[in-house]
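Q: Hi! First time asking for a complex rather than a single chain. Here are the components, and I think there are two in total. Is that enough to go on?
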Amino acid sequence: DAKTTQPPSMDCAEGRAANLPCNHSTISGNEYVYWYRQIHSQGPQYIIHGLKNNETNEMASLIITEDRKSSTLILPHATLRDTAVYYCIVSYNNAGNMLTFGGGTRLMVKP
Amino acid sequence: AAGVIQSPRHLIKEKRETATLKCYPIPRHDTVYWYQQGPGQDPQFLISFYEKMQSDKGSIPDRFSAQQFSDYHSELNMSSLELGDSALYFCASKIGGGSYEQYFGPGTRLTVT
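A: Yes, that's all I need. Here is the structure of the assembled complex.
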């Protein structure tokens, strides 16, 4: 699986958009970009995924560059409960695709 | 909605003892993953099963074994426990081949003394 690079930490004001970047320059053509988050010692939680196109769901938006070498997760209106470690993971989608968690961005949402 | 169930939630064992962790996936999920998260570390993949067959193996010690049963629940067996095995153990499940997201359980906190 391709490796990813994320900033170790970010701050965001409550109510503002949080934009979390991720570099995955060695991503292959059929690898997906997944975002998960982990709120203190809880099980990681799936947020969103994408292959080529931008995606949006009730939690977030995912913007993938045209060359697919980087992406940005956008939380449109961050709340205090969004404080967590956010992981960008690149992986194939098949029956056995394990997740390789590395680094991640610790997002602190402040009042 | 039903979630992944893990038991026990907390477990305290002594060195050289054995431990068994159980995972009950979401109904109709046929794929189970096990992850280990040491203190201050990121989750690390241990092993996965799809339709009761082992599908991938990560950094799982030889002292650990796991299996998935006919009802799709899974058990992680850990023997000759060491202090370094103290960690959170997460189980995740998904519908193999057809879905993208893994659903994680609340974890089992294992403390080895």
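A: The mean pLDDT of chain A is 93. Let me know if you'd like any chain examined more closely.
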